[in-house]
Amino acid sequence: MGQLMRLQSREQIAAGVWAIVVRRDDPATPVAAGQFLNVLCGTRVTSMVLRRPLSIADVSDDGQLITLIFRVVGAGTKVLSELPVGAEIDCAGPLGHGFDLTVARHRALLFGGGVGVPPMYLLGRRLAERGVQIQFRLGFRDAADVFWADRFAQLGEVLVSTDDGSVGTRGTVADLQGTDPARKFSPEAVYACGPIPMLRHVQQSFAADLPTQLSLEERMACGVGACYACVIPDAERTDHQWRICYDGPVLDAGKVIL
Ligand code: FES
């Protein structure tokens, strides 16, 4: 069981995409970029059975306010998007292992696709605080799907792709690579969160010795490593699988078979 957090605000930020801010009474536990909250949608009485893992997009400096961004994809997330401000939400976490910031000293390349975009914001903030120069490559479906472009732009250079070309480059984040020679960027670290094809593109695009960390989006159930509903094969050991919720969600690109 998680702790009750109070819904501070909610806002629709793109087509079917919501940002909610929850307030926690105990802000002592630090929040790492890449971690998630496992959220019981609705009240404890009316809730759906499964919790929904929602990635953390931002946290206030005092640690009390956590911003979650999610897409309404079913009954659970629809209930969550309709809760009134002031409602109590049962949230477990912050859970999982986040991104390692220490591998990026001067320049970092951050990929985000769809609902994999939100954790890139907190990661970008943390890296910017360390003086790291950032280039974001963010992929969306179309113009209506784009969110927080202005906020990302405050942290670094932002390249956007949309499936239909209504904003930025037409195609996926893979199509942003090398589109403009002036935008050549030599990162010391690469971070990515998004759908598997995007992560596969990132995994295959950079040298093996370039630190590359992937946050894997998977449907989770328990969220604490107990049910094995979220496993992915280990690239180094055939007899082992990673539990994304527990060993991840952030894993080194060389350690997973996608
Ligand atoms: Fe249960 Fe990952 S969701 S082990």
Major sheet: arrangement of strands: 10-9-8-7-11-12-15
Which ligands appear in the coordinates? FE2/S2 (inorganic) cluster
Give helix % range. 10-25%
- Biggest sheet statistics: 7 strands, mixed
Please write the string of helix (H) and strand (E) elements. EEEEEHEEHEHEEEHEEEHE
Strand segment tally: 15
- The portion of residues forming beta strands comes to 35-45%
Radius of gyration, Cα only, in angstroms? 18 Å
The CA-CA distance between the termini, in Å, is 31 Å
Uncertain segments are: none
Average pLDDT metric: 91
Shape: globular
Q: How many helices in DSSP terms?
A: 5
Find the structural class using helix and strand composition. alpha/beta
Organism: Cutibacterium granulosum TM11
Protein name: Dihydroorotate dehydrogenase electron transfer
Structural description of this entry:
The structure is a single chain. The chain is α/β, with parallel strands linked by helices and 258 residues long. The longest helix is centred in the middle third of the chain and has 12 residues, at 118-129. It has helices spanning 75-82, 118-129, 149-153, 196-205, 244-247; strands at 3-14, 17-23, 36-40, 51-59, 65-71, 88-95, 107-113, 133-140, 157-162, 169-170, 189-194, 212-216, 231-233, 241-243, 250-252. The strands form 3 sheets. A 7-stranded mixed beta sheet has the order 10-9-8-7-11-12-15, sandwiched between helices. A 6-stranded antiparallel beta barrel has the order 1-2-5-4-3-6. The mean pLDDT is 91. It binds FE2/S2 (inorganic) cluster (FES). Residues 220-223, 225-230, 243, 245-246 line the site of FE2/S2 (inorganic) cluster. This is Dihydroorotate dehydrogenase electron transfer.
